[in-house]
Amino acid sequence: MCEVEETERSSHLGTKEHWEEAYSSELRNFEEDEDDVGDVWFGRQCLKRVVEALKRRWDDPMSRSEVSVLDLGTGNGVTLVELRKAGFKKLSGIDYVSSSIDLANAILVKEFGIDHGTHLCCMDFMNESDFTTLENVPFDVCFDKGTYDAIRLNPDCCAQKTPKIYAQNVKKMLKPAGILVLTSCNWTEAELVSHFIDELERIDTVTHPSMSFGGATGSTCTTVIFKVL
């Protein structure tokens, strides 16, 4: 096993056991109260800014409806809901926790009905070698809001190998002109670019509001748009 480079960033938040427990709890809560969709990573305003940035890349609603998007680590599916409301219709979501897929499906059914048209699949993005079970492969867009963070928080993460495996699997998912939209609260833009320097190229950044603390100014999260090299 490879030694973890930044041990202070490892956490139970990177373990499958944590997410199995978390989404099983959120699913029970949603079944009791359909207004309770659970946590929205980095907040709804962050999500809306990133979705708006994606909309600007496809200004025409008709062309937007033909764009295929894969939500990596879909969680409760709220990202898929926002993408659908923004006019993206060819949507897929994957997560390695089955209760996440059940919760995402329940929320999509609530929002759009039983025929919501979003393809959901329980699979481990980092360990799968064959992604052909997914619909719409290859995709125009891979959308990651916090999943890379969680992967890197796994106590077994190899700081040298994990980013390369992640980027190579993203490339398997994307069309030659496809893009990865990645939002992180653990890594700066420069760090993310350095993680994927051999596989992906930064083409844009989504600006988030800045805050000041202890004499330093920065954003609470970073969104970088990459294209395949």
TrEMBL record:
Signal peptide boundaries: none
UniProt-annotated location(s): Cytoplasm
Domain annotation Methyltransferase: ranges: 65-201
Keyword check for Cytoplasm: yes
Keywords: Cytoplasm, Methyltransferase, S-adenosyl-L-methionine, Transferase
Main location: cytoplasm
GO CC terms of this entry: cytoplasm
Catalytic activity, EC: 2.1.1.-
GO molecular function terms noted in the UniProt entry: protein-lysine N-methyltransferase activity
InterPro entries noted in UniProt: Efm4/METTL10, Methyltranfer_dom, SAM-dependent_MTases_sf
Alphabetized Pfam families for the sequence: Methyltransf_31 (PF13847)
GO annotation (BP), single: methylation
Recorded family membership: Belongs to the class I-like SAM-binding methyltransferase superfamily. EFM4 family.
Function: S-adenosyl-L-methionine-dependent protein-lysine N-methyltransferase that methylates elongation factor 1-alpha.
Protein name: Protein-lysine N-methyltransferase NMOB1V02_LOCUS7118
